């Protein structure tokens, strides 16, 4: 086993399934490497762009034929995860499939059959850790999804590990979480002390564990609103529009939430000629103020509230103290505020007045002008006509949910003009700047390069559960009802907290892996810097067995990191280069005494771009083995005119320590390309070249130190 531990989670949504792979340090290693004060932190999780892959459609489409979900859907996601997780750690790596909106809509019996088929297939076709199907393969309610999102947001923002840097007042240091998809919306936050005590029975008790084995507990409120996602809200809006204006003689419905001049069907498909469509059509007027007014009733603020206070649809939510509760919003909160208007205020804090003006100006434009600007990519490549068509309604819905529904202040913390020291101009200016997460609301997508996703929250919980408790009295990691002791509905993280031992070989392998990943991530100067580090390591660690462990670890990582299906190149760090052997006609090849070990020379290429359409096929490009040992002496020729020759084996074959160069420029190999005949040269003929190396000294062939050179030894002897 190595220093890393891994986790795989599949987000089974309504439109598709996305697999996420995360890794974190083994708890023993993490404690050893922890900086001062680091033992009070949660485990540090890592992921990379190519660790994620999404496919369509969603697993819910297999509700009628669940037996097909494995070969037709899951297999390519499992293959992707297996290409990332080291083979010797698969058995210790948990896999989860958490289904959300799409599967929630299936009948209970179809849900059960589908999830059972997923578990059976995953167990049969992988060795990932899957001890409990009910825990690892499940449909999660919206409240749980919101709680996981709350964990992810606070984990990335530092609210857990550095509370002293996030003092919001009244002893509060965590952030609230808002999520909105197509079908539902979620909210999760930790109420202030007064509200937490008043509504204790409505809260979830969340327990995690820091590197020192101590528990961290939080009391969090989380709830969901079905039907309050943007797509279902739009459907409810159209129904209300029809009820208010439609008669049998009406063919056109004026829609203030569509750009002026745009005509669509009730389902949102643009139409060119209204007379060709049966039934009513929507005609855009582009009146954004009217759109906001007409979407407000969809909040259902007047619904009966059985348990005060309520926000939307008569659903109970403890009072939010915006003095201390600062919210981050993901998904539609980000896309609707930044996707179309990103060019205007990329990554800046949400500002109601500025945002409202942007949307109002946009929606007032004629549709033909908007289409032209989309074609010119005025708002970027991601914005097509469909996005531009929908943004007016989405923006109006978001503004209503945020400010009239949840109660987010429109301009900072809204103070009364009668408040001492209140200055309206100063308030407006203060909250118009880029204030990051200091305001009551901020839309986010990534924090420090990592996506704010509920899947991250789930894996943070699992990783913290792997840390051995510091006391036998420590409670389990997970969440449940906020009651003394362990609640009957307490859902444990399901973690295996047994420490994973590391030996010397693991340490070398991990070092090789880390360096190889850095080398493959860039072709800039940092790439050459890493190569220099490898050479230095090879010099200082000259024991043959350690060098071979290091070499095998790097080779394995280079192969594993290559995106499946990408072509293998003719040169690589351990195949064609002037340090380890070349494939061009001007250089002899590093050889092994046993051709069966040629697999050590397989190359890999990493492509860190979009992995959503990766090919699982693999080619092969292997080094050759001639069956003869590497010659003991090489003469170096340096070409001062081309510094690139140091790393480029294609430039005439003039490699460092790899061949003999005659005075007339003719290069003589130490052996021929077939590897069958060893050439010999007289000492007299080589005299000019030998003088370059210090003629007069006796040969080093028998030197006891010669065999210790990491660059002159054969790479493997059997």
TrEMBL record:
It comes from the Eukaryota. GO terms for cellular component: Golgi apparatus; membrane. It holds the Pfam family GDA1_CD39. InterPro entries: GDA1_CD39_NTPase. Residues 489-499 have a biased composition (Polar residues). Residues 559-571 have a biased composition (Basic residues). Belongs to the GDA1/CD39 NTPase family. Keywords: ATP-binding, Hydrolase, Membrane, Nucleotide-binding, Transmembrane, Transmembrane helix. This is Golgi apyrase. GO terms for molecular function: ATP binding; GDP phosphatase activity; ribonucleoside triphosphate phosphatase activity; UDP phosphatase activity. ATP binds at residues 182-186. Residues 488-511, 559-578, 689-718 are annotated as: Disordered. One of its GO terms (biological process) is CTP metabolic process. Gene3D superfamilies: 3.30.420.40, Exopolyphosphatase. Domain 2. The active site is at 145 (proton acceptor). The chain crosses the membrane at residues 523-541.
